[in-house]
Structures are given as structure tokens and as C-alpha cells.
Design goal:
With 73 residues, this protein is mainly alpha-helical. Helix content is 86%, strand content 0%. The chain is rod-shaped and about 65 Å long.
């Protein structure tokens, strides 16, 4: 089973790949298909970014909760 850190790394890689793809496609802004593809890539990248950021917040919260539990022992 993948750890949360592994999943976070994969989401981060997806964000980076999406950004790279958007940069490559933006050179073809005159092509209507490229414009449509660029919009879809940007939307997908935004979703991956949101998921990555939400996962990071959850990981921090779990870490803090674990620290508090350790202090109570």
C-alpha cells in the first residue's frame, strides 16, 4: 500500500507534468485544438494541485494529532 507521502509525490509529479504540457502546447495558440487541449490540461492540473494541497493539509493535521497524543502519554 502506498503511503501518504508517496501519493503526495505522485500528485506533485502530475502537477509538474501538467505545467510542462501546458507550456509546450501554449506555443501552438493559433490551433483551435491546441487551445481546447490547453484548457483541459489546465483544468486537470488545477484539480491535481487542489488534491495535492488538501492531502498536504491532512498530512500536517495527522502529524499534529500524533504529536498531541504523544504529549498526553
Amino acid at each position: 500500500m502506498s503511503s501518504l507521502k508517496d501519493i503526495h509525490a505522485l500528485l506533485d509529479a502530475a502537477v509538474q507534468a501538467g505545467n510542462a504540457a501546458a507550456d509546450a502546447i501554449s506555443d501552438h495558440a493559433a490551433d483551435p485544438f491546441a487551445v481546447m487541449l490547453l484548457q483541459r490540461i489546465r483544468l486537470a492540473t488545477a484539480e491535481y494541485r487542489k488534491s495535492r494541497d488538501e492531502l498536504k493539509v491532512a498530512m500536517i493535521a495527522l502529524h499534529k494529532k500524533s504529536q498531541l497524543a504523544d504529549l498526553k502519554k
